[in-house]
Specification:
Structural class: alpha/beta
Distance between the termini: 24 Å
Number of strands: 8
Shape: globular
Largest sheet: 8 strands, parallel
Order of helices and strands: EHEHEHEHEHEHHEHHEH
Strand order of the largest sheet: 3-2-1-8-7-6-5-4
Helix content: 25-40%
Length: about 325
């Protein structure tokens, strides 16, 4: 099992300092999310040859490995020019992963076209429907899966709030339909309450397809008669969730980790907190320690079990 840091809150650091920071926080793996000097959001990778060499050296110097690369491209855009550009960027990103000796990538199903080419607030924008975006995504997948298989790179996919696919069971069905050992599922804990209410059952339903998890806390937006969040104007179509430190939301972490252990999970566990850049170091250290406690408890049965701290939504590291 790999315990990784999503360093989004440290993205201002140069790559060599980022590797040092991850090691200082106790991580020996990084899940590199989009950043302007490597894999920026939506556009062609900026990871030129010299930067790749420098990044690999920094990882080695600080004893850190690259668990996964996370690109975000418009591969589900119904606009064919955007979709084709996204496929080209994906192929370049896969090549970069291979150069980085990284055998895993992860991404989301996608939000459709660029919002600049839409005329209303929805996942797919303008006159396009979810079906248009799904059809575009399938065209992209049919072209890219053979590349993942040829290069020996695994793609872990997550449904995301506001995507054309934002719930668990359709995502699982589609990934199984692809039928490739190189395409797996990423369960993102902060998205749990968009997936459903029975987290243990959902993890069992995904079962061995789960190859990657994101760990951060969130509130149940459906709770308290739908008034956990108050949105103005009432009835506005919004998708809200958080990526908070553990115990600051409503995820039951014993259920989460014990259910993963029961289905034989042995993949990537990423600390994926975004909410407090002003205390990013404290958050990273806290998350690293708490994840390890649950790994020790549910995956190292032969050792003395380590009890997690009491469940307290007001708790702060």
């Amino acid at each position: 099992m790999k315990i990784a840091l999503d360093p989004h809150m440290h993205r201002h650091l140069p790559l060599d300092q980022l590797c040092r920071k991850a090691a200082e926080l106790g991580f020996d793996h990084i899940e590199l999310s989009p950043r302007d000097d490597f894999l920026p959001w939506w556009v062609r990778p900026r990871a030129h040859k010299e930067r790749i060499v420098e990044f690999k050296k920094a990882l080695k110097d600080h004893g850190v490995k690259l668990a996964s690369l996370l690109p975000m491209y418009r591969w589900a855009s119904p606009h064919e020019d955007e979709r084709q550009a996204a496929v080209r960027y994906w192929k370049e990103a896969i090549r970069i992963a291979v150069e980085m000796d990284c055998d895993t990538m992860n991404s989301e199903f996608g939000r459709g076209p660029s919002p600049d080419r839409g005329h209303r607030s929805s996942c797919c924008g303008g006159m396009h429907t979810h079906e248009h975006s799904e059809a575009a995504w399938w065209r992209s997948i049919e072209e890219l899966v053979p590349v993942f298989e040829k290069e020996g790179v695994t793609l872990n996919m997550e449904p995301h709030p506001e995507d054309w696919c934002e719930t668990l069971h359709p995502a699982i069905d589609m990934l199984k339909t692809i039928g490739s050992d190189n395409v797996k599922f990423l369960y993102c804990a902060p998205h749990t309450f968009y997936f459903g209410d029975d987290m243990a059952k959902m993890i069992r339903d995904a079962g061995p397809l789960i190859n990657h998890v994101h760990v951060a806390d969130t509130y149940n937006h459906k709770a308290s008669s739908g008034l956990r969040y108050i949105v103005n104007p009432p009835g506005a179509k919004v998708t809200i969730h958080q990526h908070m430190d553990m115990y600051q939301g409503e995820i039951d972490w014993d259920v989460f980790f014990s259910s993963l252990a029961e289905v034989g999970f042995d993949g990537i566990v990423t600390a994926c907190v975004f909410g407090w850049e002003e205390r990013a170091d404290a958050s990273g250290k806290f998350m690293r320690g708490e994840i390890q406690k649950y790994v020790d408890k549910y995956w190292k049965r032969g050792d003395a079990e380590v009890s997690p701290p009491p469940y307290d939504r007001g708790m702060k590291p």
